[in-house]
Amino acid sequence: MNHLNNSLLEGILVADPKRIDLSDAPDGCRLVKFDMASDRYYVDRGGKKAVETLFIAVQCWGSLGDRCIEKMSKGMTARVVGRLRLCRWQSSDGESRKSIELVADHVEFRRPRSKGRPDPALEILENAEDERERMGEPEVLYTF
Q: Which are the contacts of 97, defined by CB distance < 8 A and separation ≥ 6?
């Protein structure tokens, strides 16, 4: 029996998605990675407002990764649903390293809103391909 390993992360892309070279992988195997920052706001013991920021790497495989490269960029708000994966490697100094990454099954994003009121015609032209984007709904990318 498999145990449940499903996570949802909302945050901001801290850099543009990047294609990762998989020269030793079989043909057609494609990987795209991006980092997200997710903030948690709370009140500390002293009664002051505080923030804790989590940075996590996201892996997108195949056509989902291709669409992320096409459509997403630094500063966008994103929601990613997927599974957590432990990644192990050796650093250049020979030390064993580990990190937890989120392997995406589903990605939603919103384009950042410009400051002030943008020209509606410009917004329509920019998003003319997809009526949902113009209406402010997130675009949903899926992988199967």
A: 88, 89, 90, 91
Distances (CA, A) of 6 to 31, 81, 120: 20, 7, 39
Give residue for tokens 């948690």. 40
In this prediction the pTM is 0.73
9 burial level (CB within 10 Å; 0-12, 13-18, 19+) = middle
72: three-class secondary structure by DSSP: coil
Where exactly are the structural domains of the chain? 7-142
**How far apart (Å, rounded) are the C-alpha atoms in residues 94 and 92?**
5
Instruction: Give the CATH number of domain 7-142; options: 2.40.240.20, 2.40.50.140, 2.60.40.2380, 2.60.40.10.
Output: 2.40.50.140
pLDDT tens figures, 80-92? 999 999 999 899 9
> How far apart, in whole angstroms, are the C-alpha atoms of residue 17 and residue 70?
9
Q: What is the band of 93 on the pLDDT scale with cuts at 50, 70, 90?
A: very high
